[in-house]
Structure formats: C-alpha cells, structure tokens
Amino acid sequence: MWFVLTPYDPFAIILDVMSMLQIRTDEVYTTKEAEGFLKISNSTMKRLLKRGFLKANKVGRQYRILGKEILKLVSPELEKQATDSYLKIKEKAVNKMNKW
Predict the structure, then answer these.
(1) Secondary structure in 3-state letters for the chain
(2) What angle do CA 68, 69, 75 make, to 5 degrees?
(3) What residues does the Helix-turn-helix domain cover (predicted)?
(4) What pLDDT, in 10s, does the model give residues 10-63?
C-alpha cells in the first residue's frame, strides 16, 4: 500500500515540524541546507541575503548561516519587521509621487 502525503495531511505537518526541530542554533549551515529547511528557491535565498532578512557570513565564495538565524527567519518578529519595512517604503513612494 502506498501513501501520498498531501499538504493537508497531518503526517506532512508532523514531518515539517520535525525538519524544523533538526535545526540547531549553534550549527553552521550552507545556503543549500537552509533552502531545504525553509523550502525556498535559490533566488529567494539570494534575495533574503541581499535584503538583510537572513544574516550570513561569507566564507570564500559561499555563505554560511547560523541555525539561530534560520530560526529567527520563521519567527513572528520577522513578520513585523517586514511589515514595518514595507510601510516605510510605501510611505517614501507616496511622498515622491505627491511631490510630482
């Protein structure tokens, strides 16, 4: 018998939680490993690094990310920070448009 995990399957949710439990705060991860934990694409990872939402250290030509930084990314505090950043950018854009 084969089991197919769907996004709404409770087993899929348990597997997601278990993968997040594997992230150790003091461990160092590559961008590929972080992409796997966060289930994001390479381009999204680059965007998060470039905009400073995910802090990393460059070692040679590659980035290394602490586990605590990955866990910070999925915390509710980051959502507030992202919302605040968006509102500041929106306010600047509106002010520029009003000056025209």
Answers:
(1) CCCCCCCCCHHHHHHHHHHHHCCCCCCEEEHHHHHHHHCCCHHHHHHHHHHCCCCCEEECCEEEEEHHHHHHHCCHHHHHHHHHHHHHHHHHHHHHHHHC
(2) 90
(3) 28-73
(4) 545 544 554 555 788 889 999 999 999 899 999 999 999 999 889 999 999 999
In 3D, which of 33, 21, 19 has the Cα closest to residue 66?
33
CA atoms within 13 A on the CB side of 95: 6
Token pair in block for residue 90: 């929106």
41: closest CA among 49, 21, 64?
Answer: 49
Question: What's the pLDDT at 60?
Answer: 93
**Domains in the chain, ordered, with CATH?**
10-74 (1.10.10)
Query: With contact defined as beta carbons under 8 Å apart, do 34 and 66 qualify?
Result: no
Rounded to the nearest 5°, which phi and psi values hold at 52? 85, 10
